[in-house]
Write a sequence for this structure.
């Protein structure tokens, strides 16, 4: 029989974050995470495929938010504006859990395995954004290019956001980064 | 005693490409590559750290070419122009071995492990380009952003280049992609 485990996912997540922070990602096992959360390994694997996925459990929600925002933007919205609004919406999502984001980034930066996983997730987001633009009738190569450029902008803004000490606004940093790309690529 | 093995690197490379094409990357072993090349596994490992690296052996030369071109561009050259010239130079490098590039991309697209490795190599190139721009006095976040956007442009142009049937010019496609990014990000 399966016991009812209230909020076991968030208990596992919290336990993992503490252990990754204390002893490093590489040296932490699933057994230790489960024990710290007062749960079984079996429960862990009902929620996460492996110990890396604990750090990326929000990736699907992020992708859904980006895609939905792009697809549902008014028809008159330009492709880059639709994508920028999606990134601003993502900025609000991360803004609501800034402390977690900062701590998570520190763990990822410390592990080449996690940095690789993050690059893969970002590439997936670029593809999803490009597909959302195609749904709006944007043709290639523009759709693919905007997807890639949008992720470049988000990555850069996010890196700055987690490394600034004062409370800053990720959405605002996204908008700034877009303006910098615009200025940098402008015809001489 | 080490026997003199003329051009063993290129024999290993050719053998690997044939085997990866015939039976897939995943199912090919280093032992098979060495045997097909008429060499020993030990010789293989003198040239490549693993069977993935056979497909990325040119990465350092590519990075050196990009960095050198950016650093040595005339002082009056804008950052995005310096980077675009570097990508055009890379385009010439790839253009000289188009058939290899097409075949290599097919092998990479077939393997998630290789697609991941490629993402890591591209991220390394973005960082190297940003560092080269900083050497020219470009400040952040612009340097970091241009590095990322440049790689987005190159990736997109390269994908189109290897999938067009007629002989097209990669450098020209890079220039086109830059113009598309410029148009897409222009203020409304």
């Amino acid at each position: 029989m399966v016991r009812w485990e209230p909020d076991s996912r968030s208990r596992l997540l919290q336990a993992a974050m503490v252990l990754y922070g204390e002893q490093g990602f590489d040296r932490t096992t699933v057994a230790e995470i489960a024990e710290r959360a007062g749960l079984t390994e079996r429960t862990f694997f009902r929620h996460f495929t492996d110990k890396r996925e604990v750090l990326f459990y929000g990736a699907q929600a992020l992708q859904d938010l980006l895609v939905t925002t792009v697809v549902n933007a008014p028809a008159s919205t330009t492709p880059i504006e639709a994508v920028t609004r999606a990134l601003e919406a993502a900025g609000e999502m991360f803004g609501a859990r800034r402390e977690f984001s900062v701590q998570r980034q520190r763990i990822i930066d410390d592990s080449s395995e996690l940095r690789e996983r993050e690059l893969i997730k970002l590439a997936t987001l670029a593809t999803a954004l490009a597909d959302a633009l195609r749904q709006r009738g944007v043709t290639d190569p523009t759709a693919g290019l905007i997807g890639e450029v949008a992720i470049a902008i988000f990555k850069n803004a996010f890196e700055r956001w987690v490394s600034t000490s004062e409370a800053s606004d990720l959405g605002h940093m996204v908008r700034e980064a877009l303006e910098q790309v615009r200025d940098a690529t402008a015809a001489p």
User: Anything to note?
Assistant: DSSP finds nine helices and no strands in chain B. The CA atoms of residues 65 and 90 of chain B lie 7 Å apart.
